[in-house]
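Continuing the series of single-chain predictions for the mutant panel. This is the parent chain; the variants come on the following pages.
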Amino acid sequence: MTTTIDPRTSLHVHRGLAPIGPQPGIPEHERRLPLRRFLRGPKLWIVGAHGGSGETTLASLHEAWTPADHCWPQGPAGSNGCILTARTCAGGLLAAQSALAQWAANRTGTAQLLGLVLIADAPGRLPRPLRDLADVVSGGAPRLWMMPWVEAWRLGAEPTPDCVSGLSLLVGELNAVAASVVPSHHLSKKENNHGS
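Parent structure:
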């Protein structure tokens, strides 16, 4: 099910039957994001699935968000809520699929994946093959948000939540999801992500 946040934009969120945690028996992809230990964590980590994923741009939309530099952050309990981000090109979608498979295989350590943000890689509607691939890939994420192409960012404008209609709603939703993070020491051993 896809719910439109703002009918004037292509910014929307997917809610439906989606995994809320790692799944037993999921094989891990060869391509993996590294785990990296941090002494302190922000309110929300933005994890880029690949270079050019929009990790830094998305993180710049709120002062309490931090780009994780293409890794799964490992830090103090309650500071490991993550949003995975990728572009909607084939390479970006496949990188997101690999990162989601790593999470599903329980190989992201203490990082708690909260959802996936797909950022348009070009203006206009996604071609059918990429829409189909995005549907398959996003089925492996707890939540999905899709951001439209922002021409002003391409031209060097500072990313702000009010530069695109509906973007401030996305910021609000991501903050609400981040507030729902349960400290990892409160999770049972079965629910907790332990990396190898």
